[in-house]
Design a protein that fits this description.
With 278 residues, the chain is α+β, with helices and mostly antiparallel strands. The chain is 42% helix and 21% strand. The protein contains 7 helices and 10 strands. A 5-stranded antiparallel β-sheet has the order 8-1-2-9-10. A 5-stranded antiparallel β-sheet has the order 3-4-5-6-7, with helices on one face. The chain is globular and about 60 Å long. The N and C termini lie far apart (62 Å). 38% of the residues are buried.
Length: 278
């Protein structure tokens, strides 16, 4: 009887290790504010990972497509029911996550005799100004974080933090135009993708002998320069395409979400990258 709590904790830890493995090959997601809206961006191998949830709310995801679709439809139903029963202004990303999405994902993760959701999700909510934009990220265990200016999804929380730190470091102010936001977003995506590859290489590399302490710590990271990031992005685009969407702040109508088509992406991407147009 006394071993039961320990067995549950051990089972949850095993489940966490299993889920961490599932995201190593996934494509990072980045979302950031600019003066006229919010830009969402990821890499795609054919299955969409960016969606509209409600008038001012967009979704980006990593993980198993079936699980992502199931939770996306749950969010859609929740948002439209909330908007019908109350008002469209009551439909917020924070309410959807805190009272709907996070509890469902947490319960599935902790019920060790049932399959968990293999998903990480990012909700971007457009505000009336860039300072009012809201970003929420939800982990596979139901834990969530809320913030402004930008957010990211990646295989680990450490890489997510590295991507967010890069965006904030490279742009002290909110990007003023969509091309500026696109340039920053593709570099942040490339940074996350490179970090995931390095993480995989480090785990497969034979253990090296201990070396003298150089005074650095494991948390010390040096961001690759622009050319290295764009070179990696160019190589990555040979296997996957850039998927991007925007939430437009001043567009007429209630729905502010708009996917960027390949021709528009071609004009917005930094020069020298392969065109998304087939």
């Amino acid at each position: 009887m006394f071993e039961e709590p320990y067995r549950w904790v051990e089972a949850v830890e095993n489940r966490r290790q299993y889920l961490d493995e599932q995201f190593r090959q996934g494509s990072p997601v980045v979302a950031l504010s600019y003066e006229k809206g919010i830009l969402l961006l990821t890499g795609s191998r054919g299955t969409p990972k960016l969606y509209e949830i409600y008038d001012r709310i967009g979704l980006g995801g990593m993980g198993h497509p079936a699980d992502l679709e199931k939770l996306r439809f749950s969010l859609l139903e929740m948002a439209h029911l909330e908007g019908f029963n109350r008002s469209p202004s009551d439909v917020t990303g924070s309410r959807l996550v805190k009272y709907g999405l996070a509890p469902v994902i947490k319960q599935a993760f902790e019920e060790i005799f049932k399959a968990p959701f293999i998903v990480k999700m990012l909700l971007a909510e457009l505000g009336h100004t860039s300072q009012k934009d809201c970003f929420l990220t939800i982990n596979y265990d139901g834990a969530f974080e809320e913030g402004g200016a930008c957010a990211a999804l990646a295989s680990t929380s450490a890489i997510q933090a590295q991507m967010v730190a890069y965006v904030k470091k490279e742009s002290e102010a909110i990007p003023g135009s969509l091309p500026e936001a696109m340039d920053l977003a593709v570099r942040a995506w490339a940074l996350g993708s490179l970090a995931q590859l390095k993480e995989q290489e480090d785990e497969t590399r034979p253990t090296e002998k201990p070396t003298l302490d150089t005074g650095t710590t494991p948390s010390t990271t040096v961001s690759p320069d622009r050319n290295i990031l764009l070179t990696h992005l160019r190589a990555a685009m040979s296997e996957q395409t850039i998927e991007s969407a925007i939430l437009e702040r001043n567009t007429p109508g209630s729905s502010r979400y708009r996917p960027l088509d390949p021709h528009e992406l071609t004009r917005l991407l930094p020069k020298g990258l392969p065109s998304p147009v087939n």
